[in-house]
Amino acid sequence: MDSLLKGLFGGSKPATPASADDGDFADFAGAPYPVPVQSFNPMTASPVKDSPAIPTSSTGIVYTKWYRVWERTSPRDFYTEMVILPFVLMLVALHVWGRRKNKRKARSWMAAHAPILKNEFAVVGFAGRDSPLLEDVESEGLAKASASEKLTIPSELLKENTAQEYTTYATGRQNVAFVDVKITMFKRYNPFTLFLEYALSTFFDSIKAPEERMEATAYTFDGKEKELVAVPSQREQTNLEERTKGLQSSYDGCVWAVVNKDNMRRLREDRYDISLTVTKDHPKLPLWASVMSESAEVTDALLTPELIKLVEEAGDAAFEYLIITDQPIDKPRTLDQTIPRKRLTLSLHLPSSTAPTAYAKALPLFSYFLRLPDTLVANAHFRPEVSRKIKATREDESRKLRKVDEEEKAEERKLEGDRKKKAEREAKLKGLSAAEQNRYLEKERERERKKSEKKMAKRG
């Protein structure tokens, strides 16, 4: 009875030790009794320098200061980085080496060809003038501010378009409006892409193998100096007209080329202008070269002994093609694209060496190419029979395009007429009652039926 009353009114029970068989509290059975942490007084505590890390639990986890990484890690934690890092460093090194190699090669080409370009043209490279500031114009006047030497942009002989492509520019010569030069090199900065392009070109004929080449294109005036030369004042316009009054810079248009036989098929497939020519071997040319021309008389006028000698000196390894054309590279789709645009193109392979002396064999041919517009102005005037034959080919293409253009316009006119008829029909039906609409539609069906019967009768 006594124990029952103690249980009802909160009497104390003797503490019993935790049983080892109690599954709910087995994890806490052997835990030590928690000890309160002593408060830390920064005024009385003595600093301990470079004290070793002390494990705080039985699991072996080390707690240390944030900068003592060597006490929390081991070399085995960086095995993945040790494998990846050498490949990353190798790729970076190859990229830097490839870009520098291409830049050295482009500069080497420019060092060998710059004297010739500067000798033939008044301006070589990319230069210009900035616009004057508003403050300078207000203080000094427009004329004086525009003539300031501070606005001159220094000339840059080469411009890097991409890591594998460099360009240069030249202008300021009689008979030539300007010359664009493009230097294309291997993707040395990306060896995996370079290897992939080589591999794909081996299995697929449509994919070209990577090549290093220089392609120069000269755009001739062809009697259009007034349209192509920009002059800032009427006075300079008058001076230009006086200087060009007795000069003749036009010549008869044609498509003519001397090509390396390794490139004949590719040129004929890729270029519309070359597809207009006929290929013939010339006895005076090397065996690896051939002529592509629209007429034998054109070949007699343009294939000079000097050109034959220079092509032979350049060699099979360097020479690709020399093209004189007035037609577009891509097949024209409109009549505007058939307008003749006369230009000359020279393509040469780049040597493997970066020394300027490696271009010695091809330099005379490049110099001849820059002077070739003068030869065209002097000699490229053919007999009327030859000119008519050349023009007939262009007129055939223009006739085809004109026919296609007229058919497209007729189709557009028909569609426009159908749209107008439909709009008029819908407007007329809206103004009719339901019965009138039914009669109108019935008459339409009757007319359509009669038309179909007439067609069937004509076919029978």
Low-pLDDT runs: 15-22, 42-51
Provide mean pLDDT, rounded: 80
- Secondary structure tally, helices: 13
Q: Helices and strands, in N-to-C order?
A: HHEEHHEEEEHEHHEHEEHHEEHHH
Structural class: alpha+beta
Oligomer: single chain
Binned strand content: 5-15%
Which of globular, elongated, flat, extended, rod-shaped describes the shape? extended
In whole angstroms, how far apart are the ends?
Answer: 128 Å
Helix content: 40-55%
Total DSSP E strands: 12
Largest sheet, strands/sense/barrel: 10 strands, antiparallel
Whole-angstrom Rg = 43 Å
Description:
This protein is α+β, with helices and mostly antiparallel strands. A hairpin with a 2-residue loop joins strand 5 and strand 6. The strands form two sheets. Strands 1, 4, 5, 6, 7, 8, 9, 10, 11 and 12 form a ten-stranded antiparallel β-sheet that branches. A two-stranded antiparallel sheet has the order 2-3. The protein has helices at 2-8, 79-120, 134-140, 142-146, 191-203, 225-228, 234-243, 264-270, 296-302, 305-314, 363-379, 384-430, 434-459, and strands at 123-124, 126-129, 152-156, 159-162, 165-173, 176-184, 213-220, 256-260, 278-280, 289-293, 319-325, 343-349. The protein is built from 13 helices and twelve strands.
